[in-house]
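Repro:
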Amino acid sequence: MFGLRGVGGRLYRGEVSIDFVGRQRTWYTISGIILVVCVAALLIRGLNFSVEFKGGSIYQFPATASMTAGEISRVVTQAGGGDSTVQHLSGLTSQWQVQTGTLPTGVSEQVATALEKAFNIPRQNLVVQVVGPTWGSQITTRAVEALIIFLVVIVLYLSLAFEWKMAIAAFIALLHDIVITVGVYALTGFEVSPTSVIGLLTILGYSLYDTVVVFDKVRENTAGLVTSQRSTYSDAANLALNQTLVRSINTSVTALLPVASILFVGAGLLGAGTLKDLSLVLFVGMLSGTYSSIFIATPVLADLKEREPQYKELAIKVRRREAGGRAAQRAKAAEEEARRTGTTAAPAAGAIPDTGSPAPRAGGTAPPGSPSAVGADPAEGGDAADDTGEPAADDELAVSATQGATGAPRRGTDGTRPTTSRQQPRRGGSAQRRPGARRKRR
């Protein structure tokens, strides 16, 4: 108990998280397989409706040691009852129950008389119930109408209390529960009675209650989400699921324990009847409702909300922020690892490694003593003019030769200083070869 309480607290605070919404494809696949099997069972086997729906006669009498299901069915068929369903009801008193189709009044009396004579049953111990087909069709119509009204009211209520997308998600979860519950009846062949319909409406209310609890927490977590941009809608909805997970499990287990006791213990002791019909549909429906409220309703809601433009843009921003945070964490981890091992961290992408030599000067000239200055080819200076189409370096040498040792330009014969123009630094191949020409001048 204390361990479960601790896990619940960690789930509520977000310290531990189960990605329900992120794995919706898995849950959809599981539900799809179950729904396909249930629909196939409905189409192939159909439902076993009770006499209240299809009409007919019911004969119930105490059981004796000499009675068998085959013998009872043979007596009914010989008396004109046609095909019949024979069940042995075990409980406080052992009894046999025979169901036939709709029979005329005279034929029904013949079947009762045949059973009395064949098995020596006193008349007062043979109970006969006749249900007309009109009453059965009315029950079916009313049940379908009640189900439709229930679903419409639920959709309207959720649309007003929450929003229409939450109503759609809850409606899909309810249809999911209905198909699975009815499919289980088709697979197992259990009889569908009016009591089963009452139980079906009950479990739909239970499933809806659990879904509304989760949706209320989702609405609380997503309030102001677009403005704060703290997480995506799917992340906030998944957090709400984790926060209400323990509550859903506790509620489901608490409700399933007494239902299971009625189904497996009470029905086994008292036999088939109202308790068995009611407990079976409640047990199957509660299991399906718990599953759909966690794995179907909220993931469907998140899918619908993530299609809105505002939440699409929010998801993009959150992903970018998370990507930047992860990159910073990786860089910090690499730096700490390098500091721990005493090695130099690898340079970032686009960084120029340090080779230990000074950087070249502006204009492409290398400092004296560098390999590019010492090892330059003197003949490259003359190639610059040929390659670039600009004045050769010898033109500069001719101007520089008129300068004195102090660097001042020499005067001409008329006493005036020659005018020299400062050339702009060259780029490209000629700038790479200029140091060779200066070396030649020295």
